Amino acid sequence: MNIFFVFQTKIAGVGFVKIHAPWNILCREAELMKLKMPTKKVYEVKQLSGVVEKICSLACKLVEPLHPHVEEHQPQNIKHLSHTFSREKQHLFDLSDKDNFFDSKTRSSIVFEILKRTKCKAKYSMGITSLLGSGIYTAAYPLHDGDINEESAVHNDRRLLYEEWANYSVFFKYQPIGLVR
Question: Which of 2, 36, 137, 161 could covalently link to 82 via disulfide, CB atoms 3.0 to 4.6 Å apart?
Answer without folding.
Answer: 36
